[in-house]
Structures are given as C-alpha cells and as structure tokens.
Write a structure and sequence with these properties.
With 334 residues, the chain is an alpha/beta fold. The protein contains 8 helices and 15 strands. It has 2 domains: 126 residues, Elongation Factor Tu (Ef-tu), domain 3 (Beta Barrel); 175 residues, Nucleotide-binding domain of ferredoxin-NADP reductase (FNR) module (Rossmann fold), CATH 3.40.50. The longest helix is centred in the middle third of the chain and has 12 residues. The site of NADP nicotinamide-adenine-dinucleotide phosphate has 25 residues, from strand 10, strand 12, helix 7 and strand 15. Flavin-adenine dinucleotide binds next to strand 4, strand 5, strand 6 and helix 1.
Length: 334
C-alpha cells in the first residue's frame, strides 16, 4: 500500500506474546451486563486480570485477545481459540495494564445442528461455545487467554494530530470504548500512566448502530462522555424501531449520508481518520456514502476498472473487489 503524507503514525503493537496452544491464565475481575435495557441479546462487559502473564501492560486499545475454552468440541478436538476485541484502554481498566476487558455477546441461535443429523429439523438451540462459557464465568474464575492480536486498528502515536469518525455496529463498539477512554477519560489518578496523559481535544464523532434502543451498549457512559466533552458527539442509529413510513430503519451509513453536510468539514480535513468495527459488510455502505459525497479520496483507493462508474451505482461485488481502504481508514469487521 502506498504511504501518504497524512497517514497516521501508529505505535508498534506487540503481538502473539502468548500462543493459543499454551495460554496464560487470567482471572475474571468483573462481569456486568452492558446493554441499556431489557433485550433479547445478552452482552457483558467482562474484565480479566492478566497480571503476571506476558499480556500484562502489552495490550493496546483496538487489538484483540484470544480466549481458549477448555475441553473439546463435538468432534473431540480442542476448541479453537476465539478472538475478542479489547474494550479496555491501553493502560488497562486499572491504569497499570493489569486488567483487560471485552464486550462479549452470547451467541444464541436456532438452526439445524450440523454436529447431530438426528436433530436436523432446523430449530435446535445452538449456544456458541466460547461466548456462553465466558459469559457464565463468575468473579475469580480462571480464563485461558492468548494474544494480543492485531497491529493496524490502533490509535495513532499522536492522538491530538487527528480527528476521528468512529463507526460501530453492535459489539463492534468494544474497541471504541477503550479508545474513547484513552482519548477523553484517562488513567485513574495516582497511576504512573496518569502523569503521562493529556486529554484529547480533537473532534471525535461516534456513530453506533443497534437494532433496538434497548440493545445500545455502554449507552449511559457514552451519553455522559458527550455531555462532559464538547469535542465528542455520540450518535445512536436504531434500525428496527417503528418508522413513520413502512420500511427498514437506518443503518450507520444512512446516518452518515443524512448528516454529510455537518460531517464534511471534519471528513474533508487531512487530519481525519475513520475507524469502523462490527458486522462484516458494514464497510460497503460507508465506502459508497463517502465516495458518493466526493469524500473518498483520502480514505479509499479505487481500482481503475471502476474509476468511471458513479459511486452511487457501485455494486457490492465491485466495492468488495475494487475498493480498498487507505491508511486513514481502519476496518475491523467479520
Ligand atoms: P461458536 O461455537 O463458534 O458458534 C458460532 C456459530 O457457529 C453459531 O452461532 C452457529 O451459527 C454456528 N454453529 C456452532 N455450532 C454449531 C452446530 N453444532 N450446528 C450448527 N451451527 C453451529 N465477539 C464478541 O462478542 N465481542 C467482541 O468484542 C468480539 N471481537 C472479535 C474480534 C475479532 C477480531 C474476531 C475475529 C471476532 C470477534 N468476536 C467478538 C467474535 C468471537 O470471536 C466469536 O466468534 C463469537 O463470540 C462466537 O463464538 P462462540 O464460540 O460463542 O460461538
Ligand atoms: P447487531 O446488534 O445484530 O446489529 C447491529 C446493527 O447493525 C443493527 O442495527 C443492524 O441492523 C445493523 N446492520 C446490519 N447489517 C448492516 C450493514 N450491512 N451495514 C450497517 N449496519 C448493519 O450486531 P451484533 O450481533 O452485536 O454483531 C456485531 C458484529 O460485530 C458481529 O458480527 C461481531 O462478531 C462483530 N465484531 C467484530 C469485531 C472485530 O472485528 N474486531 C469486534 C466486535 C464485534 P438490522 O436491523 O438490519 O439487523
């Protein structure tokens, strides 16, 4: 990828300090629901003490870590490692890098059981192995962990040199919780990290997509952050609540499109970085919206093959194959 003048300088992230094959042992410090209201989804903010392991002090906001569920899967093989985004800032929940956290959604589905043809009628309750195991753990329980993972979805070395558009869907909010903590809240008083920290006064906009208002994650904390910091705006985008007219409610890119006039000065500035985390496919709408508004050049590399096509007419296939994010556009989607 070509490097440009306004590309952010990123820290050198440490990776793979602990392999999933020989995980380190962390311990649950807390596990609390972080959903706003009563909902069909269950999402917990889970904090894990990793002191004394190679992960201590080494996990940056935006990276992920592995959880290695003990035991074997239905085929008798050890469970595969599952990755979870860090929801903690780089100085950890405690300010000393000893306690990491994540935002874990229980995976719950009704479908055909692939492991058991006898239960193939399509309405067997499938509980995801790792998210449910992790969500069930009580304070003090042991968690085998690995990582950290990822080196691109990070805050820049000089946070004040940039403005930020953060776009999340569902549990994709996890890294932004850590990043916003780091940019606006800072380490607890009395920790060495506090002495090195200064609040970030850059413009920060968070667009957060959820099906229902009750599904919003960390919502009171985000509202309070926006109230205290005039440079930070929080925009929940709700997709499934009743609309004045029939049809599906907005997704995050519809919000960006509708507010493009207000967002343009920030997005047009070479200081601005875009981060998107959550559902695979969310980037397609964001790319199309940016390019249609004539704001794509700093964030997107467009292949010659579709350079002459109006971005409003780009197909999903064309975006997937022919549009690439630049260093100013960070994606973490799956
Ligand atoms: P699994 O057991 O892996 O099941 C997942 C799905 O597989 C089921 O829902 C079902 O569709 C299918 N399945 C499983 N068993 C069967 C069966 N017998 N028959 C039919 N179908 C079956 N998740 C978060 O909640 N928070 C995060 O912050 C987060 N961050 C991530 C970061 C990265 C970089 C990545 C790659 C993933 C992240 N994830 C996150 C997702 C996480 O890694 C897991 O994939 C997720 O928790 C589901 O894992 P599970 O073990 O609970 O489900
Ligand atoms: P969810 O609550 O089901 O949905 C979040 C919102 O996104 C809903 O409003 C949904 O609208 C909307 N949405 C659906 N498709 C979209 C699209 N193409 N573009 C924009 N918005 C879209 O989400 P969830 O269950 O928490 O899932 C979050 C996803 O993020 C999971 O796949 C999770 O694995 C992933 N995740 C990734 C990372 C990472 O890569 N580091 C970290 C954390 C989470 P509808 O009403 O239309 O459904």
């Amino acid at each position: 990828m070509t490097v440009h003048l306004h590309d952010p300088a990123l820290p050198d992230a440490r990776m793979h300090l602990v392999a999933p094959g020989s995980p380190a042992i962390g311990r649950i410090v807390s596990s609390e629901s972080c959903i706003r209201g009563k909902s069909a989804s269950f999402v917990r903010h889970i904090s894990i003490d990793v002191s004394g392991t190679p992960l201590e002090g080494q996990c940056l906001a935006g990276q992920s870590f592995g959880v290695c569920v003990p035991g074997t899967d239905s085929k008798g093989r050890p469970h595969k490692v599952r990755l979870y985004s860090l929801a903690s800032p780089s100085y950890g929940e405690d300010g000393n890098g000893r306690v990491i956290s994540t935002t874990c959604k229980r995976s719950i589905e009704e479908r055909t059981d692939e492991d058991n043809p006898a239960r193939g009628d399509g309405h067997v309750l499938i509980l995801g192995a790792c998210s449910n195991w992790l969500s069930d753990l009580s304070v003090g329980a042991e968690v085998p962990v690995s990582g950290p993972n990822g080196k691109r979805f990070l805050l820049p070395v000089d946070p004040a040199a940039h403005d930020y558009l953060f776009v999340a869907t569902g549990t994709g909010i996890a890294p932004f919780r850590g990043m916003l903590h780091e940019l606006l809240v800072g380490p607890p008083a009395g920790t060495p990290a506090r002495d090195r920290w200064t609040p970030c006064l850059s413009r920060i906009q968070l667009v957060m997509g959820a099906p229902y208002r009750t599904d919003l994650l960390y919502d009171p904390w985000l509202n309070e952050l926006a109230r205290r910091h005039p440079n930070f705006s929080y925009h929940p985008v709700i997709s499934r609540e009743p609309l004045p007219a029939p049809g599906h409610g907005p997704h995050v890119h519809h919000f960006i499109d509708a507010r493009i006039g207000a967002l343009r000065p920030m997005l047009d500035s070479p200081r601005c970085l875009i981060y998107a985390c959550g559902l695979a496919g969310m980037q397609l709408g964001i790319f199309r919206t940016l390019a249609t508004a004539g704001l794509g050049s700093g964030y997107l590399g467009v292949h010659d093959e579709i350079a002459a096509v109006d971005p409003a007419d780009w197909t999903e296939e064309q975006i997937k194959r022919r549009v690439r994010p630049t260093h100013r556009c960070m994606l973490e989607v799956y």
